[in-house]
Amino acid sequence: MSRSISQTRTLEGPSADEVEAYLKSHPTFFEDHLELLEQLRVPHPCGEAVSLVSRQLDLLRDKVRRLSRQMDDLVQIARENDALHQRVHQLGLTLIDSKSVEDVLAGLDWALHQYFQADFAEVRLLDAKFSTPIGNLLLGTSDVGFPVLNALVEESKPLCGPAQLELTQILFGEHAEAVASMAILPLKHAGVHGVLAIGSRDQNRFRSDMGLSFLIQMSEVLAARIASLLAGAELGVE
Asked: Taking Cα atoms as reference points, which of 161, 132, 165 lies closest to residue 148?
């Protein structure tokens, strides 16, 4: 079946004559659509010699495009930070609702997997004097790994980046070889000494140059909640 001329033009768009006629009948078109002027290039009558004004317009267009991309990037970062803030807030609520250290660790493990896509999460408390059914939670001064972890806690500095075999073996045990990157955060509050270790199979998930403010906030809330629960247990408060 053959197409009519009008059908062909509809598919291919208006002809140059039709565009010209339309603009002549709508002389204020570009005043109503100023954004199009940023995308159009109008040849200068001087030929190959580009006028200074034309060059300035080109530079301004490039600058506007760069600023637009930068603004898009900033908006995306703001959205990601807001989402991360909400996750930390939800984690804080989970920890506050916990009634025991065991509940804290269960809630922490769930939240890290649910909100932060963590593959592995471990807590170690150093030389803590209380009983718990959770294996490997407590490390005494004579236990393997105590000196290394104690040094990290005393430095009070988070460790973030590629997995270190000695640390992954101490913290993640049988999962050590699966950990490609990790973040280790000291837990130090009101007598609580320990570490929170988060591991990922992705080697780029935790990097030495990444921001740690949210992770630090999370570890501080965790240490404070554990300290509160242990103090309550000593006083017989539930």
From this structure: 165
Q: Cβ distance 83 to 95 under 8 Å?
A: no
pTM comes to 0.62
CATH architecture of 73-235: 2-Layer Sandwich (3.30)
How far CA 23 is from CA of 26, 28, 31, 182, in Å, comes to 5, 8, 12, 62
Distances (CA, A) of 170 to 128, 134, 146, 148: 17, 16, 9, 9
Give the whole-angstrom CA distance, residue 35 versus residue 42. 15
Q: Give the integer Cα–Cα distance in Å for 109 and 53.
A: 62
Query: How far is the C-alpha of 208 from the C-alpha of 181, rounded, in Å?
Result: 10
Q: What is the pLDDT of residue 236?
A: 47
Task: Give the DSSP H or E segment for 151.
Answer: helix 146-155
**Cβ-defined contacts of 96-99 (< 8 Å, 24+):** 96/225, 98/225, 98/229, 99/229, 99/238
Q: CA angle, 89 as apex, 88 and 94 as ends, to 5°?
A: 95
Q: Is the pLDDT of residue 65 over 80?
A: yes
Specify the residue for token string 């922490």: 108
Q: Where are the domains of the chain?
A: 1-40, 73-235
